[in-house]
Amino acid sequence: MASQNISVPKTPINYSIRVDKVGVRARIIRAVRIAAISVVAVIMLIPIAWMSMTAFKSRPDAVAVPPKVSFEPTLEGFVSLIAKTRQLTTEQIAEYEKNPDLNWADRIMLRRGQAIIGVSEYPRRFLNSLIIAGVSTVFSVSLGLLSAYSFSRFSIPGAGDLLFFILSTRMLPPVVVTIPVFLMYRAVGLYDTHIGMIILYTVFNLSFSVWLLKGFLDEIPREYEEAALVDGYTRLQAFRKIVLPQAVTGIAATTVFCLIFAWNEYAFALMLTGDVARTAPPSIPSALGTGGIEWARIAAGSMGFLIPVVIVTFALRKYLLRGVTFGAIRK
Amino acid sequence: MSALPQPNPTSSSSQRARRQISDRTILHLFIWPTLILLILINIFPLFYSLYLSFTNYSVISNKPPEWVGFANFIRMLNSEEMWSYFALTGRYALLSVGLQTGIGFGLALLLREKFKASGFLTTLILIPMMLSPVVVGLFWKLIFNPAYGIFNYLIGFTNPAVAPDWLAQPDLALFAIVIVDVWMWTPFVMLLCLSGLSAIPDYLYEAAAIDRASSWFQFWRITLPQVAPLLLIAVLFRTIEAFKAFDVVMGLTGGGPGTATNTVAIEIYRQAFLGQFRTGRASALAYIVLIIIIAVSNLYIRQINRAREG
Fold this sequence. Notes:
The structure holds two protein chains of two kinds.
Chain A lengths: L23 H32 L3 H4 L13 H7 E5 L2 H9 L5 H8 L2 E6 L2 H32 L5 H10 L5 H15 L5 H25 L3 H9 L4 H12 L1 H17 L2 H6 L7 H7 L8 H21 L4 H5 L7
Antiparallel strand pairs in A: 1-2
Helix pairs in contact in A: 1-15, 3-15, 6-9, 6-12, 6-14, 7-9, 9-12, 10-11
Chain B lengths: L13 H6 L3 H30 L18 H8 L1 H32 L6 H9 L6 H12 L6 H4 L15 H29 L3 H9 L4 H30 L2 H6 L11 H10 L5 H31 L1
Helix pairs in contact in B: 4-8, 4-10, 6-8, 8-10, 10-13, 12-13
């Protein structure tokens, strides 16, 4: 065979090696292109960078005119986010300063004349977000996996219509679904409960997870299972021991997408929770109203909220396209 | 769906057959929990709100829903305010989807050929669309602030006294939400275009190069028609989302100043959960939006199919 004589490069060549693409002109065009993209990337990141900077500003720095690019970083925003504080008078400050038991957080707040008197509501909301997003993701991925397996492996009458029906539930404006769900929840006592929100987010993500997982499962050759069935495995054993290990990447990607959707969700949480089960997204804007706009605090809250998502974006970049198009488009 | 569930070949021994659950049972066990949940939380509410849209129900009154026929729909369709909200939503959709498509497609063309760090840069550009819309709305509020926000300084207004106040001036507020929406969702269009571009076979361009076709010609006759289906899908997704626009607008302006950014999704929320809690009317409005979304989707899908065939 002739192919044996051709030296195969060890690493795949990802860039063009066509002759017309290595000339001077082509190189200049390439440099311009890279520069343009870098500029766009920087522009896209300015808002995020600005918010991260604001999170480390002190209260006067955050609203300085003109906006300050260099400033003395402080954790004031983060501390005021998780702590409930009380304004002190000048004498109280002097007295307070003598107290030897002050920790670093107390000292930060003391600099702006406030004493920490407890924990704010934010940690609780954050915890709510974690619980609701976490538990609902477990449910929607496991239920979605079972249905996706059925759609992928068994012949179901009207499967196409059924799948479309499952997807269509995500095309509605959330407000359309919210009103009746609100009435229903109020009638059965699920309004403003963790269970209610978990059920809602489970269903909200279920359509997505069925579609995405079906795509991943379709790629696993069914011959593997058929061989296992011939060897005496039951269908459930084959599912557990053959399909699941192969679908791990797909399941992981789906899990993270579901987590992010539930994590970011705002409309349902705003309309279907009061105080008990309220998640973090609706409570970040509500911090606006309370006694002047504390931008450092809001920025700190947003940042704590965004960092996990940014990390996940990088981890998921291979699956991003699938995820954001409900698994409809593969590459 | 080619193969029907086959009887297990090894289940010939009767003992084994009894122990083993049939494929049909597994199918039902696997699929019904999902369907029941969807029917309960999605389908039932959908029909219930259809019913409510024909009543004068309000969630805060203790009166049961009273049938009023098409009164809600007639009222909505005859109200000039409502038409202005629809016009506003249409303008918003047109502007933001148009800009996203143009910029997103341009970026995809730039990112098409890989270079060192192109994967990293692509991922950086993709970050905005993964963020929480309401948080995005919120910190853009800081960025747009005329005194201490950075936006005006970046575009050249260094004097806060004469700088535009993006969120407080009715004629600018719409552009402000368009800017944020474009910032957030252009990466999405770019991502779809990129996958469309990477699917174009190289031989088409090679053939064109042999025929000495200009790059302009190559763009119009190869690139554009080949990417068109995915580009249209991106536009479809974004148009639907524009009609549902709620989170970002709520975080940014809350529909204000006045009603300058009161999109229909915000209006449904206002009708349903503020002031009078007019549940019936809000449901009717929601259905009008739903019908528009379905109509627009069908138009696009027809266009996508035509692009695929063509």
